[in-house]
Amino acid sequence: MRRLLLCGMAGAAALLAGCGAEQIQGPSFAAREVRLDDAAAQSAPTYSYERIAHPNATATTAWGINASGDVVGDYVDAGGGRHGFLLHSGAFTTLDIAGALTSARGISPGGDIVGIYRRASEPAVNAHGFLLSRQGDTTFIDFPGHTNTIPQRILPDGTLLGCRHDNDTMGSMRGVVFDGGGPSEITEFASMNNGATPDRRLIVGLWTNGPRGEGYTIADGVFATFVVPGSDFTAAWDVNPAGETAGVQHNGTGFHGFVQTLDGGYVSIDFPGATATRVFGINARGDVVGSYVLGGQTNGFFARRGR
């Protein structure tokens, strides 16, 4: 187990993107309704589950996974401090911005990591982004003209996705993409871009549609909202290169993860015995990561896809 203290350059061009998942979580095509029917269940993939728990943690969350199976996330220590982590080949490396609470959110196929940090002197709503390159260089990320930036995902070409907001969590939040052409944002209220296919023809995320949190897709530039049937809250948190979407939904029995497969079916992801399960990341082979609550304890998990 290693510790890596991140000290880097402030990115003057503001490499952008992202927003507050602790508050959005349930940590969350043109009004498409999905169906969990018997036929979909019979063809649904299966998963084997593994716990992710940092040895020094009172709580652990896995936020992202790449094609190699490297996992990033955060853990809370006994003193209440939050630290980012990289889990590679079964070994944890702690990722900390010096003097700040830190969370690692996404990891590219090549190993570049994005995340957020907050100085102890700042309000709890604040969040700033960072990019840790595979070479070990750190760049601080602040979206121009806004107080807070949360990069949630990094694509193979270095494009970042997430959200920006000001002195609140949701009201001023907008989903953002930052690429070589500069930052852009969507207009939907309280939105957050959480993942995209490598060609960016499909972007997924979450937003607030009136009284309800819903997932969305942006397919070839067209925004469309969706909810899992029977849920009162749906959030899309990631999408893999094939176009399978992963996320979180809430219904009368609590929080559950989900994966939408290529045939349009939805598979519920539930860690065995857990009272709540949330999925935040999916990789190219369909493995997913997230968090679960069991006996009042929050841990991360890795679910390996079978068929």
Task: Please explain how this structure is put together.
With 307 residues, the protein is mainly beta. Helices cover 3% and strands 53% of the residues. The chain has 2 helices and 27 strands. The protein has helices at 21-24, 38-43, and strands spanning 2-6, 9-10, 32-33, 47-52, 59-65, 71-76, 82-88, 91-97, 100-107, 113-119, 128-132, 138-141, 148-154, 160-165, 174-179, 182-185, 192-196, 202-209, 212-219, 222-227, 233-239, 245-251, 254-260, 266-269, 276-282, 288-294, 297-305. Strands 1-8-7-6-5 form a 5-stranded mixed beta sheet, with no helix packed on it. A hairpin with a 5-residue loop joins strand 11 and strand 12 (138-141). The chain is globular.
DSSP E strands, number: 27
Number of helices: 2
Unreliable stretches covering 5 or more consecutive residues: 7-42
Give the rounded overall mean pLDDT: 88
Q: Secondary structure elements and their pairing?
A:
Elements: E1 2-6, E2 9-10, H1 21-24, E3 32-33, H2 38-43, E4 47-52, E5 59-65, E6 71-76, E7 82-88, E8 91-97, E9 100-107, E10 113-119, E11 128-132, E12 138-141, E13 148-154, E14 160-165, E15 174-179, E16 182-185, E17 192-196, E18 202-209, E19 212-219, E20 222-227, E21 233-239, E22 245-251, E23 254-260, E24 266-269, E25 276-282, E26 288-294, E27 297-305
Parallel strand pairs: 1-8, 2-12, 3-20
Antiparallel strand pairs: 4-27, 5-6, 6-7, 7-8, 9-10, 10-11, 11-12, 13-14, 14-15, 15-16, 17-18, 18-19, 19-20, 21-22, 22-23, 23-24, 25-26, 26-27
